[in-house]
Amino acid sequence: MTLAKTRAVCLVGVDGFVVDVEAAITSGVPGLHLVGLPDTALSESRDRVRAAIFNSDEDYPNRHVTVSLFPASRPKAGSTFDLAIATALMAAAGAVPAQSCTGLVFIGELGLDGRIRPIPGVLPAVLTAANAGCRTIVVPRANAAEAELVPGVEIVSAGTLRALLCLLRDEPPPPEEEEEPLPRPSETLPLRAPDRRTGLDLADVRGQAEARRALEISAAGGHHLFFSGPPGCGKTMLAERLPTLLPPLDREAALEVTAVHSIAGTLPPGQPLIVRPPFHAPHHTATRAAMVGGGSGRSLQPGAVSLAHRGILFLDEAPEFMNGTLDALRQPLEEGEVHIARAEGTATFPARFTLVLAANPCPCAAAKQIDCSCPPAVRRKYLTRISGPLLDRVDLKLELTPASRAELRYDLELAESSTVVADRVLAARERTLKRLADTPWRANSEIPGPELRRRFVPSGDAMLTADDALQNGSLSARGLDRVLRVAWTLADLAGRDRPSADDIGGALALWSGWRP
Ligand SMILES: Nc1ncnc2c1ncn2[C@@H]1O[C@H](COP(=O)(O)OP(=O)(O)OP(=O)(O)O)[C@@H](O)[C@H]1O
Ligand SMILES: [Mg+2]
Ligand SMILES: [Zn+2]
Question: Which atom number of ligand 1 is nearest to the Cα of residue 400?
């Protein structure tokens, strides 16, 4: 019996585990047998591997071959095991030296013609392998730049099975493989904020001073935000400009965001690392699965909450979203991640986002209240489609009125640009980070309630306003936590060491500002 071993990675959400792949050639009826709980896509690997080996001008071992996947008890999904299976098979057949692939991790899907096809999720797969102590990882050539974002591992890439086998045999590559070297990912992250991709700028918005201030507070502390107001008052316009106020992602966050978008297949072309906070705006027809993620095996997809991870989730026309879709947000809002139970195990996707909701006050969407034809009951009911528990989690609630004609005409030079506001946001965030230096949190909105009340207590005088609100019932315990977090952000924006009475009053006004 001849035996060879390689390794592969099975992804479950953004996590995964390393799979040992063992190929053994024994006497018996010729054929390839795959054992160790493969799913359908993985079972079809047999056919792809056979065709790819044949079309790479290699001899397919026409023998009784068993390929086992360990740990045998865990279900395995996907087509990314092809490369590990093909190399284990060729090594067991003696076509490549067995020791040349021992300990190597192979990630990639094979085309029938022998090409190694790019796959989604390379970054999290390589991270999984690196965290498991693997040192050398073979990936599809087209995914090399993404794989090389992971420090401390050697990435080998190949475009075809033939080229990979040459590498393992220490032979020169086949002539057609001498491709242009791929561009390397840029190591430097841009330091300053404005979002040059979109050309949007806060200065495009005239008037709306309160709404602009709310955007600034949201950007500085990561606070959730709700704009209500008549059609055309600028709700969508304002929300779309929130990303221009945010600082770029730090390296750790950039890798987290890139991992999610790698799995979803939404990485921008030619840009292996996402360095700007994402802005994700699902349509109101989005299903619950589209919102929080779903599917199984290879088609397990992160939802909108994860595509917005470390950025903005914007729900425009929020009351139009289907029943249940909005309430599905509550769990990720609390935990900063979503869990999806699947045969392969519970998949976890990160989902720490800033929620921005926009809504018209009623379904007829009249430009002026006087033109509204909706019966009062309909008006009242419309906004209550956004449930109380969800609204409780929104720190900043604003009711907008359209900018006046004078503002629209003359406010040009008064309107600050995104760059100016982003500088203040950055300064406030740096102040927050200094205070939170020895904690796992990076923004005021992330501090858990108990910690907030234990370690970040404003002075007694400042708390008097909040005490009054608690006493007269206009503020709940959960509301108090949210008000305190915003108060800290107001203090950080103003350069104060602790929230003042005004900061608490301001935060309270923004929290309770508006109710359906
Ligand atoms: N304050 C403003 N400054 C500059 N332009 C504005 C302002 N408010 C509205 N506009 C103009 O009106 C247009 C409509 O704004 P926007 O789509 O943001 O409104 P909305 O509140 O989202 O409306 P709807 O409820 O219909 O979605 C904008 O594209 C912009 O041209
Ligand atoms: Mg709109
Ligand atoms: Zn109406």
Answer: 21
Q: Which of 225, 228, 236, 407 to mutate to test the pocket of ligand 1 (most atoms within 8 A of CB)?
A: 236
Instruction: Tell which CATH architecture fits domain 2-168.
Output: 2-Layer Sandwich (3.30)
Atom of ligand 1 nearest to the CA of 365: 25
Using the mean position of ligand 1's atoms as its centre, give its distance from the Cα of residue 512 in Å: 24
Is the domain 202-416 a CATH 3.20.20.70 member? no
Domain limits of the chain? 2-168, 202-416, 447-516
Q: Is 205 in the pocket of ligand 1 (CB under 6 A)?
A: yes
Nearest CA-CA partner of 447 in 486, 501, 473: 486
Single pTM value for the model: 0.86
pLDDT digits (tens, 9 = 90+) for 45-104: 888 999 999 999 998 888 899 999 988 888 777 778 999 999 999 999 999 998 888 889
Determine the atom of ligand 1 nearest the C-alpha atom of 229: 21
Can you say whether the dihedral through the CA atoms of 388, 392, 394, 395 is positive or negative? Answer: positive
Which DSSP string do the residues of 86-120 spell out, in sequence order? HHHHHHHTTSS-HHHHTT-EE--EE-TTSBEE--T
